[in-house]
Write a structure and sequence with these properties.
Radius of gyration: 25 Å
Distance between the termini: 9 Å
Bound molecules: adenosine-5'-triphosphate, magnesium ion
Number of strands: 19
CATH class of the largest domain: Alpha Beta
Structural class: alpha/beta
Helix content: 10-25%
CATH architecture of the largest domain: 3-Layer(aba) Sandwich
Oligomer: single chain
Number of domains: 2
Number of helices: 9
């Protein structure tokens, strides 16, 4: 079997670039270390549209910050091009690019008060007098911090400092804001409210936001589109829904949520049967065309490593104990309930299918399927073919 390249292919752009369009065209960057040169960003091509909220998502070390630094001009590419708006900006120094960056450690000037921190970039652009005061005031009002204008950074909480850093970054009206895990230092509650504020700000300012995070829920909550990176390459680009429901490979599937990969031979009626009754999508088919009848069956596989597996999210599975008749039609896998974990609204049930294989089912805690399920019961997990994807790798 030939494995498809796990790299995202950027389609041809249809429209003329707007002021805040970011185009990466085959961008590659290596760093020299003690053990030789290492490719950190690998032939990355991507177009981010004006006014889009785009997130780069990926594990630590996959090259997210380096990609941002290349766009900002804080690093220079080895090869490829970077276009900002309609201008080829490859090789331009940072100050000549109309982008601003907000870093995780927001680095406010400690000796300047809030007003002067926000005014700093404007003064460098020779803005002064009433216009300076108006623009600083408007920026601070947008982040709800105007009444703190005359405090010093150390008199503010982490979340308040973060908002000042944001105001400072957009007050100079860049076309693109680059945000490198700006919420990572905040506690969960504050992070969630800042996510909403960021989204609101982005809508009001209609700026292009390129946001970097390794937290999938954060990326999903805010973004129009998400690009998933692994080892310096873009693996998939899509809306949060596309990425979550139709990941192109196992890495994406498991990075953005819990996933079941059920070997075809364990599916009831799976062996040798028509796969279109088990799953309607294929992982190597990014256009989501239904599986043609009979294109694949477990009979075509020669070893375990190439046996097709069926990918289904835990919350798309329905559980029913063997003694009951199932209200759900569809393909299924049989096992024994080995554990159930109550987590408020949902209960997670582990179904042992084989000694070395189990399926996770997430159920509504108030549902009868959960009420009736006891540890040790024989049970089925059932799904709809529309919720399942065939992986051949
Ligand atoms: N200036 C540098 N010199 C050498 N290696 C570097 C340099 N900057 C980054 N790297 C290496 O490049 C790789 C990617 O780093 P990068 O900071 O882009 O990752 P990241 O995706 O932002 O990770 P994290 O989520 O931890 O911030 C890492 O292996 C890192 O050690
Ligand atoms: Mg980083």
């Amino acid at each position: 079997m030939t494995l498809k390249s796990a790299e995202y292919q950027e389609p041809e752009s249809k429209s003329a670039p707007g002021r805040g369009t970011v185009v990466l065209d085959g961008v590659t960057k290596s760093f020299r270390g003690l053990d030789g040169s290492k490719v950190v960003v690998n032939n990355l091509s991507l177009t981010i549209e004006t006014g889009e909220f785009f997130s780069l998502l990926g594990p630590s070390g996959c090259g997210k910050t380096t990609t941002l630094r290349l766009i900002a001009g804080l690093e220079q590419v080895d090869s490829g091009r970077i276009l900002l708006g309609d201008r080829d900006s490859t090789g331009l120094p940072a100050h000549a690019r109309n982008v601003n960056t907000v870093f995780q450690n927001y680095a406010l000037f400690p000796h300047l008060n809030v007003f002067d921190n926000v005014a700093y970039g404007l003064r460098r652009q020779h803005v002064k007098g009433p216009e300076l005061r108006r623009r600083v005031r408007e920026a601070l009002e947008l982040v709800h911090m105007y009444e703190y204008a005359f405090r010093k950074p150390q008199q503010l909480s982490g979340g308040q400092q973060q908002r000042i850093a944001l105001a400072r970054s957009f007050v100079t009206e860049p076309s693109v804001l680059l945000l490198d895990e700006p919420l990572a230092a905040l506690d969960l509650k504050l992070r969630e409210s800042m996510q909403e504020e960021l989204k609101r700000l982005q809508r009001e300012l209609q700026l292009t936001f390129l946001f970097v995070t390794h937290d999938q829920s954060e990326a999903f909550a805010m973004s129009d589109r998400v690009g998933v990176m692994e080892g310096g390459s873009l693996v998939q680009v899509g809306t949060p829904e596309e990425i979550y429901l139709h990941p192109v490979n196992r890495f994406v599937a498991t990075f953005v949520g819990r996933a079941n990969f059920i070997p075809l031979s364990l599916v009831d009626g799976g062996s040798g049967s028509d796969l279109s009754t088990i799953a309607t999508r294929r992982s190597d088919d990014r256009e989501s065309v239904a599986i043609e009848k009979g294109t694949l069956s477990s009979g075509t596989t020669s070893s375990d490593s190439t046996e097709p597996t069926i990918f289904v999210r835990p919350e798309r599975l329905h559980l029913y104990v063997e003694a009951d008749s199932s209200p759900h039609q569809g393909p299924r896998v049989r096992g024994t309930i080995i554990d159930r974990t109550f987590a408020g609204g949902v209960t997670t049930v582990r179904l042992g299918v084989r000694d070395d294989f189990e399926v996770i089912v997430t159920c509504d805690s108030a549902s009868t399927e959960v009420r009736d399920a006891a540890i040790g019961d024989a049970a089925y997990a059932v799904w709809s073919p529309d919720d399942a994807t065939v992986f051949e790798m």
